[in-house]
Structures are given as structure tokens and as C-alpha cells.
Amino acid sequence: MIPLSPRLLCCASMICGSFVCDIGTDHAYLPAYLITSGKAKTVLATDVKQGPLNSAKGTLKRFNVSQDVKLILSDGFEKVPAKGITDVVIAGMGGETIRDILAAKCAGFLRNNVNLVLQPMTKAEILRAWLAEQGFEITKEVAVKDSHVYTVIQARYTGNARQISQADAFIGKLKNTDPLTRIYIAGVQERLDTRANGLEEAGKSDEAAEIRTLMREISARLNSHTGGTT
User: Could you tell me the pTM of the whole model?
Assistant: First the structure.
């Protein structure tokens, strides 16, 4: 059995097509799972370092899927042949790093109806805000429990570029009916509270007050909607 974490299982569940590109594949467990489960016919698995690709090669051989997964040494999409890709997965990185990969010039093909599956480990709010500003719509978002509670985002380009509120950037399309959403948002609020306390200790009461206002907006939005407007 392929040792896939709950985070990656959730990512796999959001795959729509048969030709997947996994950016930052690490041990290539996700590509191996996608092939053996029949969710994909072909996977491009990339990493910025050769070491992880060497490990990935062993994984592919172990599960007899080497013929269906192509390993590529690449910084983001730089060396990726984009033709035919239906889905892109970027998981296990910070929200800012994922944003930078998506913003690169070589990632322009993502606007051609490619299904994005994104799993930020930190700063998801930065990623959500960027997606909205660049015309991508979050079509689905799920909180998933792994070592912590994380979010998995499914998005697609629509061309509807817009600004979203700070509260929506922190909530995204998470549903308030899901208990894991409550745990996820509690973690967000805890981090914001820590930031506000630090600002107050530094004598920056106005900035701290802005963060506490944001915290109240997040709570109100979560209690009154099934998700944000991203």
C-alpha cells in the first residue's frame, strides 16, 4: 500500500483529469498513488533538487509505475512541458512559495482551464488573495487533519480578477458546518492574537486594534456563511 498522508489523499480526491503535474514531488508517493488508483494515466513529477528525485525514482520502481511517471528536475514550471496537462498539484509548501510558483512567467498555461490543487502549509491567506487578484476562483476548499489541520484548495482560472476582504482571505471557501474548519480557524485566530499581543507590547496599539477587528470579522463571517466569497 502506498503511504499517503491525509493531506495528499485529499489532494488526490480533487484531481479531475488524467494528465497531472506534481510540483515538488518529494518521494513521489502522490504520483504513484494516482497511477495505481487509476485517477491519472500520466504524471509529471518535479522537484528543484536531485536528491528528492532520486528517492522518487525508487518509489516509482517499487510500485511499478516508472513508465507512467516522468521525473523532471525543475524550479517550479521552468522545465515542464505544459502541453496536455489537465491538473497541477502543489502541496506541502508555504502559501507565499506556492504563489511565487504560480506567478512565474512559465506558469502562464495555467490559465488554459487547468485544475489547480493547492495545499499550503502556512500563509494560506496570502495565496487566496493572490488567486482572486489574478482571476482564479476557488471552487472547493476542505480542511484536513494531518499532524495539524491544514487546508486543501481547488481553483481554476476564470478571468474574474478581484480584491477580496481580509476576512475572506483567511477563510476562503471553508464550510462552517465542518468541525475541522472550526479547528483550522481557531488556529488562525490564535496566530492573529499572538501578533496583536506583540504589537501591543511594542506600543503599536492602532495596528493591534486593526488585527483584533479582523479577528471579529473572521468570527462573524464564519458564523454567518458557509464560506467566503473567493
Answer: 0.94
Contact 125, 170 (CB under 8 A): yes
Q: What's at 60, amino acid-wise?
A: L
> Of 36, 98, 35, 208, nearest to 44 (Cα)?
35
Q: Could you tell me the CA-to-CA distances from 142 to 7, 77, 80, 177 in Å, in that order?
A: 10, 25, 28, 11
Q: What are 135-185's pLDDT values in tens digits?
A: 999 999 999 999 899 999 999 999 999 999 999 999 999 988 999 999 999
CA separation for the pair 119, 94 (Å, rounded)? 8
